[in-house]
Amino acid sequence: MAIELVRIDDRLIHGQVVTTWVKQKRIEQILIINDDIVNDPVQKSVFDMMAPQDVLVKTFSIHKFIEVYHKTTIKRRTLILLTNSVDALALCQGGVDFNTLNLGGMKNKPGRKQYTKAVSLNEEELKALKMINETGVKVEIQMIPSEKILTLNDLERNEK
């Protein structure tokens, strides 16, 4: 399987992703899966510019990615970026195979509870994470590779 990392980070491509995860996992392509960004040429071009020159960036809607995933073999070392756990659950339920879901930054905003310095969730997002976890996918909270990994159980105990 060429999917090296599935990550939720509401900033998507930024310095932390490029300088740590892309290098550590030797990523060759980044797939942004988001129904809003797929229709926003300005955001798409910004993300293209933020990625290293040798890393291909593609954007898909959730439905389109699931469709393409089942028709095409992913051959490049791939980082899938999402903005929330509800979309990650849709991929999981759509048959996209991944063993681990990495939670990066999910900023605190109205309607969300803060669980760690970088991760805040609303009820729907927390429920989606629990459902993903129940399928056997490990949910790990880790901003950068050198940080200690927290589990979903750790996250719930850490509610601030």
From TrEMBL:
Protein name: PTS EIIB type-4 domain-containing protein
UniProt-annotated location(s): Cytoplasm
Superkingdom classification of source: Bacteria
Organism (species): Candidatus Enterococcus testudinis
Domain PTS EIIB type-4: 1-160
Keyword entries, A-Z: Cytoplasm, Kinase, Phosphotransferase system, Sugar transport, Transferase, Transport
UniProt keyword annotation of Transferase present: yes
GO molecular function annotation: kinase activity; protein-N(PI)-phosphohistidine-sugar phosphotransferase activity
InterPro entries in UniProt: PTS_IIB_sorbose-sp, PTS_IIB_sorbose-sp_sf
Gene Ontology biological process terms from the UniProt entry: phosphoenolpyruvate-dependent sugar phosphotransferase system
Any single Gene Ontology cellular-component annotation: cytoplasm
A Pfam family that the UniProt record links to this protein: PTSIIB_sorb
